[in-house]
Amino acid sequence: MKKVTFLEMTESDYALFLPDQQKAYAQERAVADHQSFDEALAEARRRYNEMLPEGARSPLHHFYSAFNEDKQNVGGVWLKVDPNDGVAWLYYILVNASFRGQGYGKAMMEEIKKRAKSLGGRILWLNVFENNRVAQEMYASVGMKTVARNLNTLL
After folding, report:
1. Distance, CA of 142 to CA of 86 (rounded, Å)
2. Which contiguous run of DSSP H or E holds residue 91?
3. Distance CA 15, CA 11 (A)
4. Is 0.70 topped by the overall pTM?
5. How far is CA 3 from CA 15, 47, 154, in A?
6. From CA 48, how far away is CA 111, in angstroms rounded?
7. CA 93-94-98 angle, 5° bins
């Protein structure tokens, strides 16, 4: 298995990560919510501003850059852990395009589980869009189970 090391994102890394993440999320939301990309992006920005009032230093939220053994940045992670209820949420995991399909996603997931547990988590949750089969397979390969599904239709 590949090995990754997590380092807290620098402010400059976070400044690059967040807009890219918002755009990726908005693209998925636009399809799922039957709305324009611009509408989805505006909603994503609103939600993120609520969730992250202090940016990368917002309480309970953790942003990591992932590095391989050659010290190359292979991706990024947004994790929230509330030790009061033991719930950890993986809001985002990104494996940089040139490192996909090489086992870094699995390695990052294993490190995420370790981090979440060390921060007081007892259960790790995440959401994945239905059309993201590659991610679903990777999550299943590291022990994640589907426990709910959301369905919708345009009216």
Report:
1. 20
2. strand 87-95
3. 6
4. yes
5. 26, 33, 43
6. 24
7. 155
Q: Which helix (H) or strand (E) holds 88?
A: strand 87-95
Cα separation, 67 vs 20, whole angstroms: 19
**pLDDT one digit per residue (tens) for the chain, 155 residues:** 899 999 999 989 999 999 999 999 999 999 999 999 999 999 999 999 999 999 999 999 999 999 999 999 999 999 999 999 999 999 999 999 999 999 999 999 999 999 999 999 999 999 999 889 999 999 999 999 999 888 888 89
pLDDT, position 92: 95
Query: Residue 3 has which token pair?
Result: 């090995």
Stated as kind and residue range, the H or E segment containing 21 is helix 11-32
SS3 labels along 25-61: HHHHHHHHCCCCHHHHHHHHHHHHHHHCCCHHHCCCE
- Closest by CA to 72, choosing from 140, 152, 3, 136, is 3
Instruction: Please report, to the nearest 10 degrees, the dihedral formed by the alpha carbons of residues 88, 93, 99, 100 taken in order.
Output: 100
Q: And the tokens for 31?
A: 């399809």
Residue 88 tokens read as 């950890």
